[in-house]
Design a protein that fits this description.
The complex is a heterodimer of chains A (114) and B (112).
Chain A (H helix, E strand, L loop, with lengths): L2 E3 L4 E5 L4 E3 L2 E3 L6 E7 L6 E7 L6 E3 L2 E6 L4 E6 L8 E8 L6 E3 L3 E6 L1
Chain B lengths: L4 E3 L2 E4 L5 E6 L6 E8 L3 E9 L2 E4 L8 E7 L2 E6 L8 E8 L5 E3 L3 E5 L1
Parallel strand pairs in B: 2-11
Antiparallel strand pairs in B: 1-3, 3-8, 4-5, 4-9, 5-6, 7-8, 9-10, 9-11
Classes of the chains: A mainly beta (114), B mainly beta (112).
């Protein structure tokens, strides 16, 4: 069965602190995709990153970085030097190789305190 | 590009009424998805279309829910009759590149 677990329901950090959002997934597929989405208070979902199962390279984009480890079925997301604008709910998601069947985690609500 | 456009943004209706949610995908995108977001169940995929054809509607909760995509630029999600437990935020998303979605702003539905 496909499943995404985001164990952290809510996280609060003080501005400029680093924060890591955890994501653990389950799948029997050998080919799959992993994603992170951001949902700010305005409600829309914003795509952050897609990673395929054959690419375990970590990725950095500005203050964002992602650590994909197949051995532990984890795809963690780190925000460095957090800012108030980072306050949002962050969703981790898993899809099959077609990219059409998605499984979302329950989200982690991040609050960055000024 | 205007992005994925959903209407209405908010809908309040009485139990038993028919509700129609609308979505205009990004021009050129060939896949369209309807999601429902609730606090209890998180984000759930209801149905998706490829080239206007429904591919998988296994996430549609009941026969009260139906979705159509009469052309590449328009889709509807209808609930008839609506019930209080249908209250949620309904998202529409479209994509061209596999797995790279653009979501609409959502429709917040409240059934009283």
């Amino acid at each position: 069965a496909q499943k995404v677990t985001q164990a952290q329901t809510e996280i609060s950090v003080v501005e400029k602190e680093d924060v890591t959002l955890d994501c653990v997934y389950e799948t029997r597929d050998t080919t799959y995709y992993l994603f992170w989405y951001k949902q700010p208070p305005s409600g829309e979902l914003v795509f952050l990153i897609r990673r395929n199962s054959f690419d375990e390279q970590n990725e950095i984009s500005g203050r964002y970085s992602w650590n994909f480890q197949k051995s532990t079925s984890s795809f963690n997301f780190t925000i460095t030097a957090s800012q108030v604008v980072d306050s949002a709910v962050y969703f981790c998601a898993l899809s099959d190789f077609t990219g059409n069947q998605f499984y979302f985690g329950t989200g982690t609500s991040l609050t960055v305190i000024p | 590009d205007a992005g994925v456009i959903q209407s209405p943004r908010h809908e309040v209706t009485e139990m038993g009424q028919e509700v129609t949610l609308r979505c205009k995908p990004i021009s050129g995108h060939n896949s369209l998805f309807w999601y429902r977001q609730t606090m209890m169940r998180g984000l759930e995929l209801l149905i998706y279309f490829n080239n206007n054809v429904p591919i998988d509607d296994s996430g549609m909760p009941e026969d009260r829910f139906s979705a159509k995509m009469p052309n590449a630029s328009f889709s509807t999600l209808k609930i008839q009759p609506s019930e209080p437990r249908d209250s949620a935020v309904y998202f529409c998303a479209s994509s061209l590149i596999q797995g790279r979605y653009t979501f609409g702003s959502g429709t917040r539905l409240t059934v009283v």
